[in-house]
């Protein structure tokens, strides 16, 4: 205790992995700890630090520490420091290899300036050994839903790698799958989760009501590990400016996007976005554009695959858009195509948005839930096929497109194309109205309310953060007394 009777703040280091889907939520969670007057340092690389300086409130409680990103060692251009910069497998592998070279400088900084606690992405498993060496608590973060981790563990326990259609056993719900995870990916995730279970707990960017008490209980009973639901972290972005500046620089002007949405009726616009590391081939984009036009609904479509390709020839453009598509959409004010990064949280929170066609990445999912927007699910890779089932089968806040090709990565050639008929049918199920759509929309709105309540004083996530900080203070003080 100090003279004023106030507890000395905790010194906590956050080490996010270098991909937007990992950096954004973990840095938002770091901001939550700083808002409780704990001393937080985010350890990252120069170009990621530049993005963060614009989007998080740096102050006496929250600071950045940068370590060099050794791009030259693997022949990467300067400034390419995130997996979202990868446009092909070769570049992705190189960036992944460079991230493994970050261990020595991070380790050196942490050992020379030991904190009271480390919160690190599970893609840095070496932090486990570092925390043990310093005898400090370590918390893991992987940006997954707790439901997905329960499903991964159950698939592992029952060796469900061969069958394409199966029911995941031993879960609180009967979850039927129509795709099998790639074995290499499953083995990698399972190995990483083993290190997660050695930590003092896992931090989840969600709220208890979304994963459900059944799954929290199931997780803690089957793994013997503690889960801390502290989110949705995106809800700390309260103003329009904060919502639009979250993450990378948007390629669309916020006011231009807003005025387009302002001119639309409530729930009339379909928002389409597959995250920053999921890229489709032209023939799949063509099916999406045909389906959207045939559905007749207005839309905002984010197409990162076409970033920097604004000057495409007509011939190139017609490989992914029907002839005259853009002109027709602009003339009728039907659609807005964004080629690059978009202010997603701001768009999802606009009253005109009535549904979200999504890859079920956990950040996108929890942002849609927080905004009360129902989803059309199209999982691609990672743990997204599990998230889909939480959305559709457990919580009833979305409909499935019918994607059945589970990939190791978000881009590259695919064996299966999701047809325009399947896409249009799913869009119409939610956007055309009717009893089913109304029921799903109502459930989504209720979850939106629950999300907002969770982060307010007295809410489940707010109380979890209070308890976690208290426990860490007690741990530190006990160690000090020893």
What's the SSE blueprint?
Blueprint: E1 11-15, H1 20-35, E2 39-44, H2 46-55, E3 62-66, H3 89-100, H4 103-112, E4 117-121, H5 127-134, E5 138-141, H6 146-157, E6 166-168, E7 175-177, H7 183-196, E8 201-204, H8 208-211, H9 213-223, E9 227-229, H10 240-244, H11 254-262, E10 269-273, H12 282-295, E11 298-302, H13 314-317, H14 325-331, E12 335-338, H15 344-348, E13 353-358, H16 362-371, E14 375-377, H17 384-394, E15 398-400, H18 420-431, H19 435-454, H20 460-481
Parallel strand pairs: 1-2, 1-4, 2-3, 4-5, 5-8, 8-9, 10-11, 10-13, 11-12, 13-14, 14-15
Antiparallel strand pairs: 6-7
Helix pairs in contact: 6-7, 6-9, 6-17, 12-18, 16-19
How would you portray this structure in words?
The chain has helices spanning 20-35, 46-55, 89-100, 103-112, 127-134, 146-157, 183-196, 208-211, 213-223, 240-244, 254-262, 282-295, 314-317, 325-331, 344-348, 362-371, 384-394, 420-431, 435-454, 460-481; strands at residues 11-15, 39-44, 62-66, 117-121, 138-141, 166-168, 175-177, 201-204, 227-229, 269-273, 298-302, 335-338, 353-358, 375-377, 398-400. A seven-stranded parallel sheet has the order 3-2-1-4-5-8-9. Strands 12-11-10-13-14-15 form a six-stranded parallel sheet, with helices on both faces. Strands 6-7 form a two-stranded antiparallel ribbon. The chain is globular, with a radius of gyration of 22 Å. The chain contains 20 helices and 15 strands. The two termini are 16 Å apart. It has 482 residues and is of the alpha/beta class.
């Amino acid at each position: 205790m100090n003279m004023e009777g106030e507890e000395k703040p905790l010194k906590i280091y956050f080490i996010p992995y270098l991909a937007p889907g990992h950096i954004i939520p973990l840095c938002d969670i770091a901001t939550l700890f700083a808002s409780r007057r704990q001393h937080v340092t985010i350890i990252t690389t120069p170009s990621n630090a530049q993005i963060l300086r614009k989007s998080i409130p740096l102050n006496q409680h929250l600071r950045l520490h940068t370590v060099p990103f050794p791009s030259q060692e693997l022949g990467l251009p300067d400034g390419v420091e995130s997996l979202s910069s990868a446009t092909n497998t070769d570049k992705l592998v190189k960036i992944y290899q460079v991230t493994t070279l970050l261990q020595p400088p991070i380790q050196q900084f942490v050992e020379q300036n030991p904190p009271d606690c480390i919160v690190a992405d599970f893609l840095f498993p070496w932090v486990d050994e570092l925390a043990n060496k310093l005898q400090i608590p370590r918390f893991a973060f992987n940006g997954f839903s707790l439901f997905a981790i329960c499903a991964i563990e159950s698939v592992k326990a029952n060796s469900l790698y061969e069958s394409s259609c199966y029911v995941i056993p031993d879960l609180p719900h009967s979850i039927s799958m129509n795709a099998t995870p790639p074995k290499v990916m499953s083995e990698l995730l399972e190995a990483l989760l083993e290190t997660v279970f050695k930590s003092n707990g896992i931090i989840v960017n969600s709220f208890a009501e979304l994963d459900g008490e059944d799954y929290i209980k199931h997780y803690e009973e089957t793994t013997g590990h503690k889960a801390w639901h502290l989110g949705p972290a995106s809800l700390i972005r309260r103003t329009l400016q904060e919502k639009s500046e979250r993450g990378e620089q948007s390629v669309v002007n916020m006011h231009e996007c807003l005025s387009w949405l302002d001119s639309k009726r409530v729930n009339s616009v379909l928002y389409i976005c597959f995250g920053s590391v999921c890229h489709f081939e032209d023939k799949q984009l063509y099916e999406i554009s045909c389906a959207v036009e045939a559905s007749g609904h207005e839309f905002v479509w984010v197409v990162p695959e076409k970033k920097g390709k604004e000057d495409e020839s007509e011939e190139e453009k017609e490989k992914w858009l029907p002839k005259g598509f853009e002109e027709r959409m602009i003339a009728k004010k039907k659609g807005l195509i964004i080629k690059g990064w978009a202010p997603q949280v701001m768009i999802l929170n606009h009253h005109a948005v009535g549904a979200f066609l999504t890859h079920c990445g956990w950040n996108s999912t929890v942002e849609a839930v927080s905004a009360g927007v129902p989803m059309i699910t199209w999982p691609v890779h990672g743990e997204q096929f599990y998230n889909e089932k939480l959305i559709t089968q457990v919580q009833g806040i979305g409909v499935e497109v019918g994607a059945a090709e589970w990939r190791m990565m978000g881009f590259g050639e695919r064996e299966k194309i999701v047809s325009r008929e399947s896409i249009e049918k799913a869009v119409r199920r939610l956007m055309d109205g009717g009893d089913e759509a109304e029921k799903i929309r109502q459930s989504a709105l209720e979850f939106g309310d629950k999300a907002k309540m969770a982060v307010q004083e007295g809410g489940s996530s707010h109380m979890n953060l209070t308890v976690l900080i208290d426990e860490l203070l007690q741990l530190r003080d006990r160690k000090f007394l020893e």
